[in-house]
């Protein structure tokens, strides 16, 4: 009788020693990393007529991180996401967000972010100032990042480092103005990102 996937995973994890995760970001291994795409997500939220908040997600991020924990100013981040991956709990809305009146995924298939300056703000936090290109428009964006953890992924056996980050953009500045200001202009970004060591 075959084990189910869940049981197989549980058995694998139970037999795999989990190494102690790095709690101090200064002990994280410096070097080149690439985004662990399946375990990275960008959540976005907007005000809905000032009555409630509504959110969705963009997945499938790709990119690289050149990390120097001892000198964060030397750290570089480049990320790209396919706007076609935008997803909400409402199928009709998901389709509309990909259309020309919103993200226009056919004409602008990628949104990109490139860091320009990384500044340490605390023991495990940093501000990442860079440029976001969305809907064919490039504007400055600062992400407020927090170190989550680092260590060997027990399943993939790859050294991985993770961060959370937040930021806010005004969608009308990128030419995405439908229903503004009734649907909020401010779009909050919450990012959960994992990076694997690039061998």
UniProtKB/TrEMBL annotation:
It holds the Pfam family YceI. This is Polyisoprenoid-binding protein. Residues 32-196 form the Lipid/polyisoprenoid-binding YceI-like domain. SUPFAM superfamilies: YceI-like.
């Amino acid at each position: 009788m075959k084990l189910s996937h869940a049981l197989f995973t549980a058995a694998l994890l139970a037999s795999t020693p989990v190494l102690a995760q790095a709690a101090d970001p200064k002990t994280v291994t410096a070097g080149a990393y690439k985004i662990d795409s399946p375990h990275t997500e960008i959540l976005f939220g907007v005000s809905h007529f000032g009555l409630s908040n509504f959110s969705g997600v963009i997945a499938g991020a790709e990119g690289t991180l050149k990390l120097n924990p001892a000198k964060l100013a030397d750290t570089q981040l480049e990320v790209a996401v396919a706007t076609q991956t935008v997803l909400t709990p409402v199928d009709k809305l998901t389709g509309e967000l990909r259309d020309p009146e919103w993200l226009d995924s056919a004409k602008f298939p990628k949104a990109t972010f490139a860091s320009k300056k990384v500044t340490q703000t605390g023991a495990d936090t940093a501000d990442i100032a860079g440029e976001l290109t969305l809907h064919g428009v490039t504007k400055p964006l600062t992400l407020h990042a927090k170190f989550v953890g680092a260590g060997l992924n027990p399943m993939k056996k790859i050294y991985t480092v993770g961060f959370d980050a937040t930021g806010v953009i005004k969608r009308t500045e990128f030419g995405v103005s439908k229903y503004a200001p009734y649907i909020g202009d401010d779009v909050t970004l919450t990012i959960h990102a994992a990076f694997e060591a690039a061998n």
